[in-house]
Amino acid sequence: MNPHAKLVFTMSLVMGTSITISSNHWILAWTGLEINTLAIIPLISKSHHPRAIEATIKYFLTQSAASALILFSSLTNAWFTGQWDITQLNHPTSCLVLTTAIAIKLGLVPFHFWFPEVLQGSSMITALLLSTLMKLPPITLLLITSQSLDPSMLTFLAISSALIGGWMGLNQTQTRKILAFSSISHLGWMIVVITYNPNLTFLTFTLYVVMTTTVFLSLNQIKVLKLSTMLISWTKTPTLNASMMLTLLSLAGLPPLTGFMPKWLIIQELTKQEMTPTATIITLLSLLGLFFYLRLAYHSTITLPPNSSNHMKLWRINKTPNTPTAILSALSTSLLPLSPLIITMF
Amino acid sequence: MTYFVIFLGICFMLGVLAVASNPSPYYGVLGLVLASVVGCGWLVSLGVSFISLVLFMVYLGGMLVVFVYSVSLAADPYPQAWGDWRVVGYGLGFVLVVCVGVFLAGFVDFWKVMVVTVDSGGMSLVRLDFSGVAMFYSCGAGLFLVAGWGLLLVLFVVLELVRGLSRGAIRAV
């Protein structure tokens, strides 16, 4: 792509995100979301492959419908209460429509159908942007309005997202689709606690961004797009594969790694709010995800893949140092002992 | 006057129905023209005449005309027409959606129609729409820059998407 055009699109992504997260008027929030949607469209369709074009169209249609719903919710709230403040979204119809709109934007079940296909149609870095940066403005809007939203609807969205994210990820062989379903189930964990302690939602989101950026960057470095490629990827970068195993287990939420921290704190908060069945159900549903994370971890560290005995081992290795992956990989495996400090930061 | 405004509202819904149940874009744009003309009339009845004129000129006279020109360049010789069973299906879906929306919005006694207007707190010297546009150029300059950047971004996005002829995103050309 033309570098000037690419600069315009990436600057617009940053600008749109900043506009939405710093706004307190609904029109400005909607403007930022629309700028984000427009700017990422050419980035998804960059390779001009038919699958990429289809992913672009699916992304555009779903996000535009969700933006229109956000506009409707803010307009009905302005009609009934006379003001446009994001924190004062009080009318029940507006809250319901907004919850639906943000669920479509984030990819929560039952509005998740676009997400795996859009991620599969885009390149690995664009998929990373779609999973992390494009989720920040809708999560911010949900955090700001969380006190007036319906807890039972949000709990339903959360538990079904954890269920579908874990269950549908089991049959996938393409790594981008696996990461899409992992994103859906992590969003479920974020949403389950938002009406009780929104700080925990933001903590979960931040740690999820750190861990999933590590996985995306690692997969991008070894150019692994499906599981069969991952089986023979250890010869390219043995250390990266070993650290990717730890990062994947951290995403799964295993103790002593970072990913355990949000799950632990969310279960504690739900138990304090007398929501023990919810906490039990969502913990059991994250076991489904654990299976495909374990499968990915196994594939990344296996040294004798079940190929034919004369499969060629890659011997041309170019070890380019990759600092962001290294830093994020360290963060995503070793932050659990710092939990008291991190809790005070949110 | 009330009945005229209600007639405008009914024509708007019929226009949107035509857009939603169109068998092909060439017939859908007819519904869009009807909906925008009648929508401009409805805006005049609400009092914001400047916005109505701007919508008429820019949307109807600019965007719809350009759409019709570009679509006529790429028209297929035998498009689907209105006498198709798909139109009935889409129309029924649209009516269902409207009924659900009316019910959810709380206007369950929708046979009692009325016309509401907005006024600038009773002071008819201050025109809401015109002074809003004036504020867009004075204290709302930041939002003006954002809107201008958004339009420039749309230009870049469209140019990037249609670049490359048959090797680009739209392979039919």
TrEMBL record, chain A:
Q: Signal peptide span per the entry?
A: none
Enzyme class name: translocase
* Molecular function (Gene Ontology), one example: NADH dehydrogenase (ubiquinone) activity
Give the UniProt entry's GO cellular component terms: mitochondrial inner membrane
Q: What is the recorded membrane topology of this protein?
A: Multi-pass membrane protein
Q: Where in the cell is it found?
A: Mitochondrion inner membrane
NADH dehydrogenase subunit 2 C-terminal domain: from which residue to which, for each copy? 290-343
The record lists the membrane-crossing segments as 56-76, 96-115, 152-171, 178-196, 202-219, 240-261, 281-304
Keywords, in A-Z order: Electron transport, Membrane, Mitochondrion, Mitochondrion inner membrane, NAD, Respiratory chain, Translocase, Transmembrane, Transmembrane helix, Transport, Ubiquinone
Q: Does the keyword Membrane apply?
A: yes
Q: Where does the source fall among the domains of life?
A: Eukaryota
The Enzyme Commission number assigned here is: 7.1.1.2
| One Pfam family it belongs to | NADH_dehy_S2_C
Q: Give the GO terms filed under biological process for this record.
A: mitochondrial electron transport, NADH to ubiquinone
Q: What catalytic activity does the UniProt entry give for this protein?
A: a ubiquinone + NADH + 5 H(+)(in) = a ubiquinol + NAD(+) + 4 H(+)(out)
Domain NADH:quinone oxidoreductase/Mrp antiporter transmembrane span(s) in chain numbering: 23-288
Coiled-coil annotated residue ranges, if any: none
Q: What does this protein do?
A: Core subunit of the mitochondrial membrane respiratory chain NADH dehydrogenase (Complex I) which catalyzes electron transfer from NADH through the respiratory chain, using ubiquinone as an electron acceptor. Essential for the catalytic activity and assembly of complex I.
Sequence similarity: Belongs to the complex I subunit 2 family.
The name on file for this protein is NADH-ubiquinone oxidoreductase chain 2
Automatic annotation (TrEMBL), chain B:
Which GO molecular-function terms appear in the entry?
NADH dehydrogenase (ubiquinone) activity
Where does the sequence pass through the membrane?
Answer: 28-46, 53-75, 87-111, 132-159
Q: What is its main location?
A: mitochondrion
- The top EC class is translocase
UniProt keyword list: Electron transport, Membrane, Mitochondrion, NAD, Respiratory chain, Signal, Translocase, Transmembrane, Transmembrane helix, Transport, Ubiquinone
Q: Where is the signal peptide?
A: 1-18
Listed GO cellular component terms?
Answer: mitochondrial membrane
Q: How does the UniProt record describe the way this protein sits in the membrane? A: Multi-pass membrane protein
In terms of superkingdom, the source organism counts as Eukaryota
> Which InterPro entries has this protein been placed in?
ComplexI_Subunit6 (IPR050269), NADH_UbQ/plastoQ_OxRdtase_su6 (IPR001457), Nuo/plastoQ_OxRdtase_6_NuoJ (IPR042106)
* Reaction catalyzed: a ubiquinone + NADH + 5 H(+)(in) = a ubiquinol + NAD(+) + 4 H(+)(out)
Q: What is its EC number?
A: 7.1.1.2
Compartments (UniProt record): Mitochondrion membrane
Q: What does this protein do?
A: Core subunit of the mitochondrial membrane respiratory chain NADH dehydrogenase (Complex I) which catalyzes electron transfer from NADH through the respiratory chain, using ubiquinone as an electron acceptor. Essential for the catalytic activity and assembly of complex I.
Q: Which family does it belong to?
A: Belongs to the complex I subunit 6 family.
Entry protein name: NADH-ubiquinone oxidoreductase chain 6
Organism lineage: Eukaryota, Metazoa, Chordata, Craniata, Vertebrata
* Gene name for this UniProt entry: ND6
